[in-house]
Design brief:
Radius of gyration: 18 Å
Number of helices: 5
Shape: globular
Structural class: mainly alpha
Helix content: over 70%
Oligomer: single chain
Length: 144
């Protein structure tokens, strides 16, 4: 379990580094949407190579059978990358990440409470609400 947490923490660190790198790409290209597209394209190529290396390339053949709603993750990921490219220059990395985390926690609590998208229902406890409130406070403090 700790390895999973460590991997996710490193993923969070990657987000903090990714935003300014993508913003620099946006400055070099002169536009945010092309920069986001290039970022997605590079990520796609890396994941395609990993899938091939692991012998999982055949999974792509199942794409015509998957429910269309399961492809919305790509749309949401595109919004995320665009929002970070666009927002990091004016917000700074700390405020950007605090805002991202607050949005993630709010959506996560709704998903947990309702069991949406095939997830198990998990209680939204006062402790979890306090955690989100502390992130909101951190977001506000990051702007002082």
């Amino acid at each position: 379990m700790w390895w999973v947490i460590l991997a996710v923490v490193l993923g969070g660190a990657a987000i903090s580094v990714q935003a300014p790198i993508n913003a620099a790409l946006s400055r070099e290209l002169g536009a945010a949407v092309p920069a986001a597209a290039v970022s997605f394209g590079v990520g796609f190529l890396v994941l395609l190579a990993i899938a091939a290396f692991q012998g999982q390339g055949g999974a792509f053949l199942k794409l015509p059978q998957v429910p269309a709603w399961t492809l919305v993750g790509g749309v949401l990921g595109a919004w995320y990358v665009f929002a970070t490219v666009w927002g990091v220059a004016s917000l700074g990395v700390v405020t950007l990440v605090a805002a991202l985390i607050l949005g993630q926690m709010a959506a996560a609590m709704v998903i947990d409470a309702t069991g949406a998208l095939g997830m198990a229902v998990r209680e939204v406890t006062p402790t979890r609400l306090a955690a989100a409130a502390l992130v909101a406070a951190g977001l506000l403090l990051s702007r002082l």
